[in-house]
From TrEMBL:
This is Cupredoxin domain-containing protein. PANTHER family: BLL1555 PROTEIN. Keywords: Copper, Electron transport, Membrane, Metal-binding, Periplasm, Transmembrane, Transmembrane helix, Transport. Cu cation binds at residues 84, 123, 126. GO terms for cellular component: periplasmic space. InterPro entries: Amicyanin/Pseudoazurin (IPR002386), BlueCu_1 (IPR000923), Cupredoxin (IPR008972), ET_Amicyanin (IPR052721). Binds 1 copper ion per subunit. It is found in: Periplasm. Residues 55-136 form the Blue (type 1) copper domain. It comes from Marine Group I thaumarchaeote.
C-alpha cells in the first residue's frame, strides 16, 4: 500500500516537473522571438520623430550614421506610430537609388549595399529626418 502511494506520488511529481519545464520552454521561446525582432533593426525610427525636434540631436534615425562593410545589409525598423520612409538623397534632391515607400509602424526595410560610398537618405514625409550610410 505504502509502495503504491509512493509510486503514484513519484509519477505525479514527474508529470508536474515535465509540465513546468515545457511551460518555461514556451516562455523562453517567446522571449527569444521578441529579442530577434529588436535585433533585426540596424537603424530605428523612434517615436515622435514625425514632429520637428529630433534633428537638433541628430536622432531622427538612430543611429543617424551607420558604417558598414561592402556587401552587408542595413535594416531599418519603424518603431514610431506614424508612417516614415527611407529614401535616398536629400529632400530637395532625391537620388532615386532606393526608396522604401511608406513604412507602416513596425514595418522594416532592408537594403544590401554592394558598392562603397556615402549614401544620404531622408524621410519623404518629414524633411527634417536625415540619415547616412557609409559603405567601406
Ligand atoms: Cu518620417
Amino acid at each position: 500500500m505504502l509502495k503504491q502511494i509512493t509510486a503514484i506520488g513519484l509519477i505525479g511529481a514527474v508529470i508536474l516537473v515535465t509540465m513546468t519545464l515545457s511551460f518555461s520552454n514556451y516562455l523562453i521561446e517567446e522571449n527569444v522571438e521578441e529579442i530577434d525582432l529588436i535585433i533585426k533593426g540596424d537603424v530605428i525610427m523612434p517615436t515622435k520623430v514625425s514632429r520637428p525636434g529630433c534633428e537638433t540631436n541628430d536622432n531622427c534615425y538612430v543611429p543617424s550614421l551607420i558604417v558598414i562593410e561592402k556587401g552587408k545589409q542595413v535594416t531599418w525598423v519603424n518603431e514610431d506610430s506614424a508612417f516614415h520612409s527611407v529614401t535616398s538623397g536629400f529632400y530637395t534632391a532625391p537620388t532615386e537609388l532606393f526608396d522604401s515607400g511608406y513604412l507602416d509602424p513596425f514595418e522594416s526595410y532592408t537594403i544590401t549595399f554592394d558598392e562603397t560610398g556615402t549614401y544620404d537618405y531622408f524621410c519623404i514625409l518629414h524633411p527634417w529626418m536625415k540619415g547616412q550610410v557609409i559603405v567601406e
